[in-house]
Structures are given as structure tokens and as C-alpha cells.
Amino acid sequence: MTINKIAISTGGGDAPGLNAVIRAVTLSAHMRGWEVVGIKDGYNGLLFPEKYPGGGTTLLTRETVRGIAHLGGTILGTTNRGNPFDYQTKDADGNIVHQDISDRLLNGLQEQSIDALVAIGGDGSMAIAHQIAEMGVRVIGVPKTIDNDLDQTTATFGFDTAVAFATDCLGRLHSTAHAHDRVMVVEVMGRHAGWIALCAGVAGSADAILIPEIPFDIQKVVEKIKSRNASGREFSIVVVAEGALPIGGELQYLAHGDVKRLGGMGQMVTDQLRVLVPNEVRTVVLGHLLRGGTPTARDRLLSMRFGAAAVRAIAEGESNIMVALDPPTVRYVPLELCTQRTKTVPLDGDIIATARELGIALGD
Ligand code: F6P
User: Fold this and answer.
1) 182 and 301 assigned to the same domain
2) Enclosing domain of residue 141
3) I need a labelling partner for 249 at 20 to 30 A (CA). Which of 34, 179, 205, 320 fits?
4) Could you tell me if residue 332 is inside a domain?
């Protein structure tokens, strides 16, 4: 099949590196003489073009992608409410109505003569990309998430930047915790995987790290804090993944309007510690700060590699695959394999062993 025009969509939560992928896809497609358009706000630009005064897609040229690689966010916009196969609206009574409006997406792609789609996103976006490919569209997935929880790829872009920022924050919290003899409980994102908490916690010399993969006993954290107090180190840093859970306990969620998201475990740990240790205990929630900022060099390089590989894959006639990091190379993995499980922290891996060997309490 001859390719003349491709489209890019960015879906789900933003992550540092999205703009670098957009730039890499655009430049390498232009090298092959293809035209590139960006779909605004996930697939919304094609689903509801009438809502966009300037049109739901935007032409991506060498000029429009100049100087964007270092920027956080996405120049295309994104959404995690735009699944064309399960589009959700509310009826007059406030009940959620589910609709399959994927035909609109197909029409939009056909009307614009788009020959292939590069879908950049996390597990939700990869599942949608697979469904679109099954409808006969040529689709290549690019793995994005700060959580690093997408299966079949050694890394997703955005993760390294999130870990670097969290590690920097832990450094800053050390000095103030030390100065005031406080326990600082730091909650980080990551959904049901402990990658950010564990990697930032080890790199940032945390004293305890609580991750979803290891249900925790608060007494183990108390023991660690008390033993530090006894040795004259009367401050501690406790990193808590938002998806961590106590043994026999429950996940914590916060409601943000209609949206319910993981959150609040840091505060719960703080509340428990306050009555169990003599130190003053404070909570810091890093939250969406982890999604912002300039991508690290590692993330920018990965984004460029993924973007170029996605275009290469289209040129090679591939479809229904995700580009995946498999050092030292990038390989193609069937999209349907990428969403069958969440890539969690392996308990027999060396990062867990390292944490234990450094004396970090993991709550077990
Ligand atoms: O998947 C990325 C992520 O930032 C998670 O770590 C977090 O649980 C979730 O998105 C938050 O999503 P939202 O911005 O929609 O609240």
C-alpha cells in the first residue's frame, strides 16, 4: 500500500516526551515524502470536528514541530474520556450512557485520506488502537506513561522524567525533614505499579517505600523510623505509591468531581504514623507535578527512537503493532499482547533486592 498521509493522536494522561514523539514522527514521515496531521484531543478532533473552529486536525510540518521536543504536555491536546468504542455521555437524569461511535472515527480517517495512524498512549490507548486496527486501519502504537506499567516494553517514555523529578523532590525533603526531625510521607503516582515509588525511593535514599506489589504492615515502617530515631537520625522519608495497600486493607481513592482516582494513601499512612511514632509527620503529594516539565535526555531519546520506529514500521507495511524498547533495539510487538497484563515490579528483581540490601523498609 502506498502511504501519502498519516495521522498522530495522543491519548490518556500526558507524559513528558509526547512532543518529542510528535516531532520525530513528523520529521521521519516528511523524509519519506508523506504528509502528517495531528488529531486534536485524542480522537475528539475526528469524532467531533464541528467543535473545533480551526478544524479537528492540524497539519504538522517541519515548522510546526520546530522547538517542541523539550516541552512537556502535547501540542495536540489529549483526553482520557474519548474512547470511540465506549463513548460516555450523561442523559438528562445524570446517568452515564455508553455509545460506540467508532464509525465516526473511520469516516473521519477516510474523509481526510489518512493511510495510517500513529497512536501514542498507555494501556487504554493501546487497547483502543488495537480495536481500530481490527477495523482495517493501519495502526502503530507508541508506548507512553509515567507509570512504566505497559507490558512488552522495557520502558515507556515519561517514566524517567517522573523518577528524576521525584528523586529531586526527595533530596529537597531530606534537608527540611532533617532540620525539623520530621517524618515526611511522600505520595507518588503510578496506578497499580510501584515503579516510580521504588526507583525514586531507592535513588533518593528513602527509608521506607510502600508499593502495590508488597502489601504493607505499618508496624514495619514504625520499626524503621524508631530505629533511626534511636541511632540519632530523628527524621525519615517514607515514599508511598498511590496504589499501595495495607495488608488486609483497601486501596484509597479520591473523588475529583465525577472522576474517581487513586489517591489518599499517603495521608492514611501519615494518620497511622502520627499515633505510632514520636516525630511530627507530614504528607507531601507529588501528584501531577510528576507529569510536567522538560523530558530528560533519556526520555527525549526514547521518544525520538519510538517516533522514528513507528514511521519505519508503517513504511515496512506493519500494522496492529506497538513499537517497544528491547535494548539495544526497538522491536515490534502485536498490540493485543501489550494490554493483557499490567507490568508490575518483579519481586525477585534486583531493584527490590537493592532496596532490602540498603536497609530500606518495604513494609513486609
Ligand atoms: O497514568 C498516569 C497517571 O498520572 C497515573 O499515575 C495516575 O493514577 C493517573 O494518571 C491520574 O490521572 P488523571 O490525571 O486523569 O487524574
Assistant:
1) no
2) 5-157+295-327
3) 205
4) no
**How far is the C-alpha of 14 from the C-alpha of 240, rounded, in Å?**
22
Q: Are 172 and 186 in the same domain?
A: yes
In this structure, are 145 and 178 located in the same domain? no
Residue 118 located in a structural domain: yes
pTM: 0.97
Q: If you search the block for the grid coordinates 494501556, which residue do you land on?
A: 123
Q: Which residue, by CA, sits nearest to atom 12 of ligand 1? A: 13
- Pocket probe mutation, ligand 1, options 144, 146, 211, max atoms within 8 Å of Cβ: 146
The closest-lying atom of ligand 1 relative to the alpha carbon of residue 263 is 8
Alpha helices in the chain (DSSP H): 18-31, 44-47, 102-111, 123-134, 159-180, 195-203, 218-230, 265-274, 297-315, 335-338, 350-357
Q: Which residue's CA lies nearest to atom 8 of ligand 1?
A: 191
Which atom from ligand 1 is nearest to the alpha carbon of 190? 6
Is a pLDDT exceeding 90 seen at residue 202? yes
Structural domains counted in the chain: 2
